[in-house]
Write a structure and sequence with these properties.
By secondary structure, the chain is mainly alpha-helical. The protein contains three helices and no strands.
Length: 74
């Protein structure tokens, strides 16, 4: 397996940091609009964001699970 180049590694790092950055910005908006404490806004937004991300990933992989006969597909 070939080592990733510096550019590919940087791109992967940027992709990995983009999702949490968006969640932090949404939490800040929730904090300002609804006057929640920052901590609770961060906890709520990160919990919902990661649950949605997991659900989307699960739905995206569903055709693969059906083709391979994974029992979780039923």
């Amino acid at each position: 397996m070939q080592q990733p180049t510096v550019r590919e590694a940087g791109r992967d790092l940027a992709k990995g940091l983009a999702f949490p950055l968006v969640l932090v910005l949404i939490a800040e908006a929730v904090h300002r609009v609804f006057h929640w404490d920052r901590l609770w806004a961060l906890i709520a937004v990160f919990a919902v964001g990661h649950l949605l991300r997991a659900a989307i990933g699960y739905r995206r992989d569903e055709p693969t699970r059906r083709r391979t006969g994974d029992p979780r597909a039923e």
